[in-house]
Amino acid sequence: MAVSKLLSFTLFITFLCAVNNGRVEATHEIYPQFQSLSAVSVHQLHRTAFHFQPPKNWINDPNAPMYYNGIYHFFYQYNPKGAVWGNIVWAHSVSKDMINWKALEPAIYPSHRFDRKGAWSGSATILPGNKPVILYTGVDPNDRQVQNSAVPANLSDPYLRKWIKPAGLNPVVDPEAGVNASAFRDPTTAWWLSGHWRMVVGSKRNHRGMAYLYRSRDFIHWIKAKHPLHSAPRTGMWECPDFYPILLSGKQGLDTSVLGKQVKHILKVSLDVTRYDYYTVGTYLTDEDRYVPDNTSIDGWAGLRYDYGNFYASKTFFDPAKKRRILWGWVNESDTTSDDVRKGWAGIQAIPRIVWLDPNQRQLMQWPIQELETLRGTNVKMNHQMLKTGDHIEVKGISAAQADVDVTFYIPSLDKVEAFNLGWSLTDAQLLCAKKGSKVQGGIGPFGLLALASENLEEYTPVFFRIFKSSQKHIVLLCSDARSSSLKDGLYKPSFAGFVDVDLTDKKLSLRSLIDHSVVESFGAGGKTCITSRVYPTLAVLENAHLYAFNNGTETIIVENLNAWSMKKPLRMN
């Protein structure tokens, strides 16, 4: 159950020590004075146009996305009474394409002893007979976190509007002795193996992150396994775990129960202490019911991430209609709580992404779902444009505050690449990005895009590459640096960054950025490295926003081809 703003570890520790104007319960920011203060009017300036966002109030974790009888269902944590965390219910929207949404009444809300103090995150599983079941975390009157089930009241209703909690069955999982009942939440989608359903619940034991494994024959009576599916020391609470199979080659997704020699498994956890999502690629040992990460995957803070920016509490699901696995992720605000209350809303969802295994089998690839392209409007192109040192060339003719930009850069020569300093860390790209920024001249780079830029560049969000050379290979850094994004004070403006595991044999690097008023969601090298930034410009807004291609490196870069589209608003009925 993720409810705090995205914070670096250092800021997080500071936050634990002193919180202004609020009290702290576990790691959640609690503002009782604002929880039921619903906005009279909603400020539209920085609201997104094509990202999922309800008309007002607070949202956080995506819950139990699923496809059922031709309809995509999206459940999410929502405060119907205010723009801060509190009063949480499972909001429910439906869609035919995951772009145009219709809002329904909440599916789950606190109503019984087993969820009286909270109905938190969970997952959906489709049982035999085409029967969907939701497992979710409830908080009982003693603040114990328990796992509960809910089912549709009427399977003939195409929208599954009403959900009920079967009488006498909940909680279906109660934390037993030795399990931390205050850190025991977010059950996964279940999978079937050898006559039993299996699912995982996130937890911690002291500072060890835990993925507790449970088995059931009937999806009602669950028994805890003797050992966890996986655990790792010094990683803290594992929120929102996700466990699923993935093919060794190709983009096709798999149902959660699929096994085989051509399959790897992904275990994702959301680390409460860092507020980032991490995953490993590994092997599910079915005879032992254990998951073992490959030796190229690391548990914890130095590990792989879906997104190296503002992205948390993610959840995937298998889409049987198009044979793909879809990833949803929460993108929180980076302004202040008082800003959220004033504007009347907080939180969006990232654009749904398909995920598949990189051909190198060491990491995942991600790309926005194809349906997003139906919103593309006016198109402009730039081909074979030379970018010399200091150039910033405007991409004109589109709505730069609401755009989809896809560009391929060509690097004529790799001879004058800046050496990678042995004192720099290969596990802390963000620190390197903060050190170098978009202005410090390198050999090859920084080059990329200036998004949400004001005419005279008082404000801009640069998304860019830098290339370094070690003794063995080229090292590619992708940055999305919010430090210059706004003239407003009091914002969280980090230099988000990730390294890109890419072969530069063809001397090309691609970048796609989805720009939507207060979010820049970027995909480097075809989706190898993704970064989402929240920004709040004061000048570069609406028709005053500009977009530039730029190069501040000593070596010339060529824009081989650039396609940019103005994006239309979806038919949003939320």
In short:
One of its GO terms (molecular function) is hydrolase activity, hydrolyzing O-glycosyl compounds. Helix content is 4%, strand content 45%.
How would you describe the overall organization of this protein?
With 574 residues, the chain is mainly beta. It folds into 2 domains: 311 residues, 5 Propeller (Tachylectin-2, Chain A), CATH 2.115.10.20; 191 residues, Exo-inulinase, domain 1 (Jelly Rolls). The chain has 3 helices and 40 strands. The strands form 8 sheets. Strands 29, 31, 32, 33, 34, 35 and 39 form a 7-stranded mixed beta sheet that branches. Strands 11, 12, 13, 14, 15 and 16 form a 6-stranded antiparallel beta sheet that branches. The N terminus is likely disordered. Keywords: Glycosidase, Hydrolase, Signal. Belongs to the glycosyl hydrolase 32 family. GO terms for molecular function: hydrolase activity, hydrolyzing O-glycosyl compounds.
